[in-house]
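Structure (tokenized):
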């Protein structure tokens, strides 16, 4: 008897079971059908190992079911590996806040967020905050926003200024650390402190994503054992060269993708 996954739960079905018939049996009226991560617009016979999801548009679901449906479009098998992952994010500006939201949407089980700053009006051109959150600590505001994106992601908040004497403690459970600072000295301090304490782990850092230059120049590079650097390595913020959402967002999503590949045991660069 074939075993398949239905809405992230294992189910044994009879040989020769077809997708639409199973929908009509288990969730009549479901109008979004996903099979193995892709939309299923045509009926098909189900096979051993298939993963299917049935969704009714607009349906409000309990958390136990919501988690399964949120990852319906994921590559099969990825979410189960990410649920137990722990990722640290140092700095919650344009890079860090965007990385955090991307990883929460991906299904990373736990995020350790660290920043000492508050939300300011000038942040809203590229950071994942809202007008009503101006003046609030970024750790609190971002945790609130992530809870509206994926309530299954656990958030640890550290409203502190990171320094050599607390980096290892704050991020001691992080498998991967995302560096999302502005200044070169702070970046170097974070990388040295974390990899010095945990040389077998990874840091995904960033340098060079200002302005509105070509997006293809922003890419991931390996910079030594445990360190991946994302950016074009040249365009830092300076007079006449500001930070804007599109290019910062490209760099942040490159960082998030590198983290994802590391967690899945894949090369983050190639």
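Design, position by position:
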């Amino acid at each position: 008897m074939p075993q398949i996954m239905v809405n992230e739960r294992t189910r044994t079905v009879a040989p020769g079971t077809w997708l639409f018939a199973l929908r009509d049996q288990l969730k009549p009226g479901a109008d979004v059908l996903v099979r193995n991560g892709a939309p299923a617009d045509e009926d098909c016979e189900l096979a051993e190992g298939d993963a299917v999801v049935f969704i009714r548009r607009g349906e409000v679901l309990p958390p136990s079911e919501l988690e399964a449906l949120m990852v319906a479009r994921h590559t099969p098998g990825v979410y189960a590996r990410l649920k137990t992952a722990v990722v640290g994010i140092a700095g919650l500006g344009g890079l860090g806040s965007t990385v955090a939201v991307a990883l929460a949407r991906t299904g990373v089980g736990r995020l350790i967020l660290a920043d000492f700053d508050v939300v300011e009006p000038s942040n809203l051109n590229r950071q994942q905050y809202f007008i009503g959150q101006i003046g609030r600590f970024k750790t609190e505001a971002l945790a609130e926003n992530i809870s509206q994106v994926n309530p299954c992601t656990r958030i640890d908040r550290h409203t502190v200024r990171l320094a050599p004497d607390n980096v290892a403690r704050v991020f001691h459970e992080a498998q991967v650390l995302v560096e999302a600072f502005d200044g070169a000295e702070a970046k170097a301090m974070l990388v040295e402190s974390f990899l010095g304490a945990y040389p077998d782990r990874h840091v995904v850092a960033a340098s060079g994503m200002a302005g509105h230059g070509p997006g293809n120049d922003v890419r991931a590079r390996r910079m030594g054992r445990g360190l991946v650097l994302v950016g074009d390595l040249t365009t830092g913020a300076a007079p006449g060269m500001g930070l804007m959402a599109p290019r910062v967002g490209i760099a942040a999503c490159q960082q998030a993708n590198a983290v994802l590949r590391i967690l899945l045991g894949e090369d983050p660069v190639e």
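Reviewer-requested clarification: The domain at 79-263 is CATH 3.40.50.720 (Rossmann fold). The CA atoms of residues 133 and 141 lie 6 Å apart.
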